Amino acid sequence: MDLSKAKTLFIAAFIMMLTFAIITHTEESLEASIRGLEMWWEVVFPSLLPFFIISELLIGFGVVTFIGVLLEPLMRPLFRVPGVGGFAWAMGMASGFPAGAKLTARLRQEKQLTAIEAERLASFTNSSNPLFIFGAVAVGFFHNQALGLLLAAAHYLGNVCVGLTMRFHGRKQEIKEDRHTSSYQIPSIMKAIREMHRTRLKEKRPLGKILGDAVLSSIQTLLMVGGFIILFSVFNKLLAILKVTDALSYFLSFLFTFFHLHEGLTIPLLSGIFEITQGSKLTSATEASLMQQAIITSFILGFSGLSVNAQVASILAETDIRFKPFFFARILQGIYSAIIAFLLWQPLYDSLQAENPQAIPVFFIAETQHWVIAYFGKMVQYGPMITLSALMLYIILYVKRMKQGFHL
After folding, report:
1. DSSP H stretches of helix in 242-367
2. What is the C-alpha to C-alpha distance for residues 28 and 266, in angstroms, rounded to an integer?
3. Cβ neighbours for 138, distance < 8 A, ≥ 6 positions apart
4. Predicted structure pTM score
5. Which of 71, 80, 106, 402 is exposed most, by the fewest CB atoms within 10 A?
6. Measured between alpha carbons, how far apart are the two ends of the chain, in Å?
């Protein structure tokens, strides 16, 4: 039997086993589905939709090209990507997964990136947003506002380290294609304006069509994201019920013993490999030391879970951007973030706590708990209404496009 047939049999057997598990554990699967749906319905959809729509408009009207010209001298030497990558990086950090991959794919479709540059860019623009790190994880799970500083520093420095590492990705291929990117120019405002104007003139769609396309594309992506969130929520629950997680944790415990990590962190880590929210929550409930919890949580946030990886794989599949470099970068960021969290524990968290525990959050974190709780409260209250309204708008626009297609 060749490898291809073996792969087919494995996939078929896995899907059949998953189907059988869902049928035999209907109640647990339903509860996990509802939990995943609530997360998407109340928070993910309403929080990501504005970023996606605005990003589409900024790309269409040439604003991203304007930003790219100005950031070229920074992004090209550091990460070997065009200046437009700075926009994807900033939006990825502000809005969270999988915005970085979505924007990278969009820039590739606009031919503002080569395939190699897009693979480099996607590798380090995938990150959690600050609200999730400070609010959901630090305050919500650990009830420790100051820990958010350490987790955020480890996470975003890990992003930078991944970008600096992946700058060497595809270098040989670029040399063979005779691509020279060693000359950099001082950014010019006038040149940036000219390029923005040229990009806008290339856009032949009327304003209404641009807005409609932006809404349709953004909602389609978020529907896909919601499907993956629900699927992996159910999958994670079934693994726990079938004791697969327990079996894997037994083998992982030997590695944890070698690194002097608490064995109780094995199951949270495995859960986090599939879905970051559940993994981070379980990590905060263990009896391990806070430093070890921070290290494991940093790895989970850096790797971002198979759920997010699957979302990104689906987005990148619409282009010629390969998924393997992205997945390798996720493993790298998990490792980098865990190491950085360990190295920064003493200078960033421990020493400041020892000097004055109340002094850490003075400039930012003192109000974190208040506004984060208020934000999530408003999101839970109004999020479903925003989601429902957007879905109704999506249906109207989609039906309208279908009718126009029939008339043609």
Report:
1. 244-258, 266-274, 276-284, 290-303, 305-316, 323-344, 351-355
2. 23
3. 144, 145, 146, 147, 148, 151, 368
4. 0.82
5. 402
6. 50
